[in-house]
Description:
Elements: H1 23-36, H2 49-56, H3 60-72, E1 76-79, E2 83-86, H4 92-105, H5 115-123, H6 146-158, H7 162-165, H8 174-188, E3 197-200, H9 203-214, E4 220-225, H10 229-237, E5 241-248, E6 251-252, H11 254-260, E7 266-269, H12 283-296, E8 299-303, E9 328-333, E10 345-348, H13 354-365, H14 370-381, H15 384-410, E11 415-417, E12 425-430, H16 436-444, E13 451-452, E14 466-470, H17 479-496
Helix pairs in contact: 1-3, 2-3, 6-14, 8-14, 9-10, 15-17, 16-17
Amino acid sequence: MTRRIKNAYLATLSLDPNSRDPLHRQLFMTLRDAILHGLIKPGTRLPSSRLLASDLNISRNTVLTAFDQLTAEGYISSRVGAGSYISDQLPEELLHLRKNETTSDSVPRDIPLSHLARNIQNIGGGGIYNLGSFSPGTPELDKFPFEDWARLLGRHWRHPKREYLVGNPIGGATILREALAEHLGQTRAVRCSAEQVIILSGSQQAIHLVIKAFAEKGDPIWMEEPGYPGTRNSILSAGATPVPVPVDEEGFRLSDAKKLAPDARLACISPSHQYPLGHTMSLPRRLDLLQWAKTENRFILEDDYDSEYRYTGRPLSSLQGLDTDNRVLYVGTMSKVMFSGLRMGYLVVPPDLVDVFLALRRDVDGHSPSVAEAALAEFISEGSLSAHIRRMRILYENRQNVLIKLLREKTADYLTVEPQESGMHLIAQLKPGIDDKEVEVLSRSHGMLLRALSGFYQFPKSDTNGLILGFAGTKEEKMPQLVDRLSDILETLSRRNGL
């Protein structure tokens, strides 16, 4: 297939008619600097001399003179009938000059960042997201019904409604809010009207808005220990103080939370499938937490990130469904049941907080992309989403069983693993003496994006040493080879540490 040539767009190019340098010299120097600094890439086609002369309001001969000099010095080359292009092979001395300029620019600067920005910077967060085997939270993409999804998208883009192009409601397309309210009521026992549903660009934005709504600078905010790093980041970015509260087999421990910070303004939890340990919060603790919120006039953020995938026992209702005093703000996402590139999440808020959160949402970016929302609403209403979730639930349960079997066969000397009742990842406890962060680093070089469990604790201890292995997005046929690689890594570290 013929490679399409990219055309240069020189909208910022300008010349000074009052300068002592002639116009052709100014044009030559401006284009030369843009080429050297990489602003115009090799192989890019320049505008025609007539078009450039018209845009700059100069004579065509001035442009041709500048082009001739650029050609003579090796910056551009001309092709008969095809125009002028940035040269793919610049002179070596010019490449050396560009390299030196880049090196000088890379000297660290003393940037006067805010205190909040420095906090987030120290936590980090760059790099490639979810591209690797065993990555927690990555769904199976090859089994997604893209033909149905493309059909719905195509239908709405061919004949888009005017309100989807301009003036979309701040809370998202009404048709999607209605579909989600019905879907959540049927699948998660969430009690809400469509007006209470606010469409966002993902669960992280929802978490950020909830914390922003309740946290003043320095306020203590409860979160789980271990817990989701995105929650901690949002607490810090709001200027508040994250208070890590231990979790056990019954989930969030309210008694410990009250001792650590009795005046906390908000509790951030994942009760249906605690992240990352996978525990389910018991009913007595759920009721106690709801009573705390009612008595103390506080609120609860419920992160229900992957509870659609439950393999054993009865389906669990949401905490929001048990709330009789409108104290729970419910956060969900389409990233786990569809794909993260869709950038679609949602927040269900109490009726008397709808206006507050619509104002907060407007302050962030106005509204979400409504044409995709209309397609998603049909995807939900016609049953395609529910059917896909059912298929994936069967697939993921099988993948979990395969991975557990392989880990027990090949790595039993180094770790222990138990099945999860729900979710998309496993927790493997490592043998003492093997550092989970070392395993994470070495695994990444072998294409595995498993995570060190200790990295999810604010205060790691010796018994927090383990691995988080996602199984949902890793095919069964690849698992034997991947587990063999992991076994080799664990054996290498075990020998190195004299175990």
